[in-house]
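Record pair follows.
FIRST:
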Amino acid sequence: MTSPTPAPGTPSSVLTLRIPDVLLAQLTAHAARRGLPLQDYVLRLLAREDFDERLREAVQRSAALAAWGPPHGS
């Protein structure tokens, strides 16, 4: 399993979050069950959510194009 942590020398930024202790405990527990550091677990969640959103948009665009039907003369 590859880590989403940037490779040395890769540009990155810091994001600081203030979250309730209860949520932090839940995230930490989920990360531990998967054997991941909390940072890696959260990065994977964000990447997965971004992928899901982009996939949903692509499917909607494809459906809109399909509504036009097959090209004439096919």
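SECOND:
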Amino acid sequence: MSWWQGSATANEVTMLRRRVRLLEEQVAALAAFTGIDPHHLPREVDPVSREARQLVEEGKFIAAIKVHRQQHGLDLVTAKRDIDAVRAQVARH
């Protein structure tokens, strides 16, 4: 099964991380070359709202998935994956 189908191997994840790092370096180099202030470049936007994140922090995972689905029109699998990622972040901190 391919990474876009929900089951990435460790090698695929490593390869994607390297590719993202390279792309970030290329964008930074292009910004420097053109004289663009890197602070004016778009930043990553957290796909999970503050409301859904708060529900995760309160341990209300099903409610967080429901809110996230409603806010973004997501299917259950995608919403759960996003909320699980937030749960992992919360657990690390």
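COMMENT: The chain has a mean pLDDT of 87.
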